[in-house]
Amino acid sequence: MCGKWAHWSGIEMSEFTEKIAAKFPDEILEGPEMESENAISVKSDKILAVLEYCRSDAGMKFEFLTDLTAVDFLEFDSPKRIAVIYILRNMKNMQNLIVRAFLSDDEEIDTASDIWHSAEWLEREVWDLFGVKFKGHPNLKRILMPDDYEGHPLRKDYPLKGRGERDSFKIIQRDRERY
């Protein structure tokens, strides 16, 4: 293992995730397991500092934002169930880095559009489909759904057939060992 910051699932951290953990020792979180040594979860209020470090530090140089998306961990035993995921690329050594931050329903996260202009479009998509609000975004409005659309359709609590559909569903318990 690579010191006290070894990934909690048993996967060793890469040199990049170790650098982030060393630079931001109080900002690293545990979250749902990711099968990657180049993945790290950070506190949402420090996401801009971490992303700027990943882009600008001479030892990091993750200058390309490959993607920005979200995952709704509805079954996650925490009020911070929405993961905002940044996939960064170091074009020199051709490596990816995944940086995640978890949010509760009413929590906002800072926009990354000042670091990568392409984040403007990606953040609009995440807001439109998941309802994540990006503080400081220059034009946060719907991009895929109609302007008058109610809700955010990729959230796991969004009803497939209309409002109230899920109210009568019973919770299905899954055997995690099978997966």
How does this structure look, described?
The protein is of the alpha/beta class and 179 residues long. The protein has one domain (3-166): Beta Polymerase, domain 2, CATH 3.30.460. The relative contact order is 0.13. The chain is built from 3 helices and 7 strands. The strands form 2 sheets. The protein has a 5-stranded mixed sheet with strand order 1-2-5-4-3. The chain starts with 14 loop residues before the first helix and ends in a 44-residue tail after the last strand. The model is unreliable at 1-11 (pLDDT under 50).
Structure class: alpha/beta
| CATH topology type | Beta Polymerase, domain 2
Spell out the CATH superfamily: NADH:ubiquinone oxidoreductase Nqo5 subunit
CATH C-level label = Alpha Beta
Strand order of the largest sheet: 1-2-5-4-3
Strand and helix order: HEEHEEEEHE
- Quaternary structure classification: single chain
Topology record:
Layout: H1 15-23, E1 28-29, E2 39-42, H2 47-56, E3 64-72, E4 82-90, E5 95-103, E6 108-110, H3 119-130, E7 133-135
Provide keyphrases for this structure.
single chain, 179 residues, alpha/beta, Beta Polymerase, domain 2, 5-stranded mixed sheet, two-stranded parallel ribbon, 3 helices, 7 strands
